[in-house]
Structures are given as structure tokens and as C-alpha cells.
Amino acid sequence: MSEIDDIFNAAYKPRVFKRREVLLPDYVPEFLPHRDDETKRVALTLSPALRMERPSNIFIYGLTGTGKTAVTKFVLRKLEENAKQKGIKVGYIYANVRHRETPYRILADIADYFNMRIPFTGLSTGEVFNRIVKKLTNLEGVYIIVLDEIDFLVKKYGDDLLYNLTRINEQLSKSRVSIIGITNSVKMIESLDPRVKSSLSEEEIVFSPYDAKQLQDILNQRAEEAFNERALDEEVIPLCAALAAREHGDARRALDLLRVAGEIAERENRNVVTKDDVMKARVEIERDRVGDVVKTLPLHGKLIMTSILLATAMGKDYATTGDIYDNYKKLISKLGLEEITLRRVSGILSELDMLGIISGRIISRGRYGKTRVISLAAEVNAIIQALKEDPMIADLLNEVKYDDNRKNNSL
Ligand SMILES: Nc1ncnc2c1ncn2[C@@H]1O[C@H](COP(=O)(O)OP(=O)(O)OP(=O)(O)O)[C@@H](O)[C@H]1O
């Protein structure tokens, strides 16, 4: 039988998985362990909708994988069910701002919910907004708009859309609109216009990270639905939980580790997932994460990443921003390109820092004063592999002798 047939047969009859999809990030379970208080607070805040009153806007923040999206969607589904039973018109629109990218697309999603036809391009954002307002003036009901990962919107486009949405009720008579803003960046909140900040934060809910024990409970509950009986070695769940607890208590990371470990066992035609599979999963996930970030960098981002590799090659712990900029200028002149400003370079460095690929800190150099230094925060080989997919960068990288195993354990 061909290898392809083997793959399809394995997909048809999985060995370890009963329902793999239960481990995917967008699956919302019927019960969310250790999020009782947060679930109740969101439910309580939204409950006036059942009396046709406008619920307070909610601002939810917490680190990644702390259940913000899961809790919000869970409560909204219940709210919608309850409203339906009572014959009250309550609806919600969920937009992941990172995926929808522009204010226009976010508004188009909202318009879509109200069955309005909005062309893919061609109208101004203001025009789409006005059409939504017009539509809503003729409707009854309470509508809750969830804007997830709003930091991506605010960073790129400012807070105009948030401002307009939080003011929308002033133009409506029969319908009411509430906003739920979700973010994992506390820094972003500081950058908001104070008026937007105060209207969004009528209710503020902070989601704290999970500890290893809590992550184990979450994994146990999901594993029961996702895996066949006795498909997991005893140490598998505690290990996934312990690794993810070190990564700021991220349930998404814990579930990813468990799912990828299962996929590795499945690929190797085994009936049991082991601790080794979890360790391999950790390397695979890290490689994918770094790969996704690095491959999508603009050319100058890749050149800066290459400059960092050059500056930290041969086991150096860190490089100064000056060294990095010097290397970058050499690469640019070699390629005959025009350099970007130091300010743009700093911007790219901050972005890479935020994405966890590098880590910057200020050190004191005695009488030379203070300087910003950069070290790698992700696995070197994963970075090199991703960069090499760009032929222009691959040529440059052939000159880097990177001999560093320490970063391979950076998780
Ligand atoms: N208490 C919980 N019980 C069960 N599953 C959970 C719990 N908290 C989070 N999860 C699961 O972990 C994953 C990540 O959760 P979620 O997407 O809600 O995190 P988030 O805080 O919104 O993260 P991000 O800021 O990265 O979007 C999802 O699969 C979710 O179902």
C-alpha cells in the first residue's frame, strides 16, 4: 500500500484520539474549570440585556491563554439562549480584530451580522459606520459587539473606531449596543484616549494566569473527551501543565502541547502518548511559532534579525543596538538597498521583543553610561531555518557561524 493510503487510513481510524477537535483553540467546552468568578461577573454585567436595557461595556484583560475569549463566548451563547426562550432580541457579534485587521473589515463584519450588503472595498469607513447606525435605528434589540485582541487595532489605527462604537447609542432609540473589548496588553490601555478608556471600562475584569494545578484540571477535563481511554501515560498531563505554567499559565499552550504530543504518537502509529512526545511537541510548537513570526517579517525585519544573529554569533549572550545597526548597514550596502531610519529599526526591535523572538534590556556600562542590549529569546535554529526560506537572506546567512546550544532550551 502506498504511504498516502497509510496516512488516509490512519486519519480514518485514529489510535489515540477520540475527538481531536476538542483540543483546538476555538472549541468552547461546556464547563470552564477555575473561571467561575469571571464567568459569573460577565454574566451579571450582561444580564440587563434580558430586560432590554443596555449592559455596561466590559473591558477584559489578562495574559494570553487565560480564558478571556472562552469565558466571553460561553456567557454570550448562554445569554442568547436565555433571550430566545424569553422571546427577547439579544444578539452578539464576535470579531477577532487581529484577524480582521482593518476598521473597515470589522465594520463589514458587524454589517454582515445585520444582513447588510457591504462591498469588499470602495466605501469609506465612515460611510459603513453611518449605514450601520441607520440600520440599527430601525431595529429593536440589544446587541453586544465583542472586539477581541483590540491592541492590534489600536496600535495600527488608533482608537477612533472604539470611540465611535462606544458613542453609537447616542444616535439610537430602539436598539442598544454594548462593547466588550478584550486585550492581553496592559500597555495598550494606557495609550487609549481617556474618554474611550472610561467608556470601555464601565466594568473591568482581569483574568489572572493559571497555576500548574489549575492547568492540570483543565487538561484532564479536555483529555477525557479528546482521547481514548488509557491513551495517555500518567506523566503526560502533569508535564504539559508544568511546562505551560512556566509560560505565564497559558491554557492554550498547555492544550497545544497535549494535542501535538497526541499527533506525534498518532503519526508514529502508537496507542499511547508518552512524556517524550510532550518534549518533542514542545520543540515542534516553538519551531512553528518562531517560523510564523520570522517568515512574515518584512524584508528589513528579516535583515535586522540577520544582523542580530551576526552580532550574537559564536556564543555571545547579547549585542548592543549599536552593533546590530552597524551590521544592518553592512548588509544593506552589500545588497545595494536603501537603509531605514534608526527609529524604524528601534520599532522593529520592539515588535520582535513583543513577539518573544528577542529580549531587550538596559544595562549600565559604568562610565560609558547606559545602553540597550538585545539577546535572543527563541531557538536559534528555528530562526535560521525560517530566515533561510528567503533566498536573499539565505545567501547572507551562509556567512554566520552560529554555535550556540544554550538557546535551544529557551522555553
Ligand atoms: N478555564 C478553562 N477551562 C477549559 N478550557 C480553558 C479554560 N481557560 C482557557 N481554556 C482554553 O484554552 C484555550 C485558550 O483560551 P482563550 O482563547 O479563551 O484565551 P485568551 O485569554 O482569550 O487568550 P488570547 O489573549 O491569546 O486570545 C482555549 O482552547 C480555551 O478553551
Automatic annotation (TrEMBL):
<dbReference type="GO" id="GO:0006260">
    <property type="term" value="P:DNA replication"/>
</dbReference>
<dbReference type="Pfam" id="PF09079">
    <property type="entry name" value="WHD_Cdc6"/>
</dbReference>
<dbReference type="Pfam" id="PF13401">
    <property type="entry name" value="AAA_22"/>
</dbReference>
<dbReference type="InterPro" id="IPR049945">
    <property type="entry name" value="AAA_22"/>
</dbReference>
<keyword id="KW-0547">Nucleotide-binding</keyword>
<dbReference type="GO" id="GO:0005524">
    <property type="term" value="F:ATP binding"/>
</dbReference>
<dbReference type="Pfam" id="PF22703">
    <property type="entry name" value="Cdc6_lid"/>
</dbReference>
<dbReference type="InterPro" id="IPR055237">
    <property type="entry name" value="Cdc6_lid"/>
</dbReference>
<dbReference type="InterPro" id="IPR003593">
    <property type="entry name" value="AAA+_ATPase"/>
</dbReference>
<feature type="domain" description="Cdc6 C-terminal">
    <location>
        <begin position="309"/>
        <end position="387"/>
    </location>
</feature>
<comment type="function">
    <text>Involved in regulation of DNA replication.</text>
</comment>
<dbReference type="InterPro" id="IPR050311">
    <property type="entry name" value="ORC1/CDC6"/>
</dbReference>
<dbReference type="InterPro" id="IPR036388">
    <property type="entry name" value="WH-like_DNA-bd_sf"/>
</dbReference>
<dbReference type="InterPro" id="IPR036390">
    <property type="entry name" value="WH_DNA-bd_sf"/>
</dbReference>
<comment type="similarity">
    <text>Belongs to the CDC6/cdc18 family.</text>
</comment>
<feature type="binding site">
    <location>
        <position position="210"/>
    </location>
    <ligand>
        <name>ATP</name>
    </ligand>
</feature>
<feature type="domain" description="AAA+ ATPase">
    <location>
        <begin position="54"/>
        <end position="211"/>
    </location>
</feature>
<feature type="binding site">
    <location>
        <begin position="66"/>
        <end position="70"/>
    </location>
    <ligand>
        <name>ATP</name>
    </ligand>
</feature>
<keyword id="KW-0235">DNA replication</keyword>
<dbReference type="GO" id="GO:0016887">
    <property type="term" value="F:ATP hydrolysis activity"/>
</dbReference>
<dbReference type="InterPro" id="IPR015163">
    <property type="entry name" value="Cdc6_C"/>
</dbReference>
<feature type="binding site">
    <location>
        <position position="222"/>
    </location>
    <ligand>
        <name>ATP</name>
    </ligand>
</feature>
<keyword id="KW-0067">ATP-binding</keyword>
<protein>
    <recommendedName>
        <fullName>ORC1-type DNA replication protein</fullName>
    </recommendedName>
</protein>
<dbReference type="InterPro" id="IPR014277">
    <property type="entry name" value="Orc1/Cdc6_arc"/>
</dbReference>
<dbReference type="InterPro" id="IPR027417">
    <property type="entry name" value="P-loop_NTPase"/>
</dbReference>
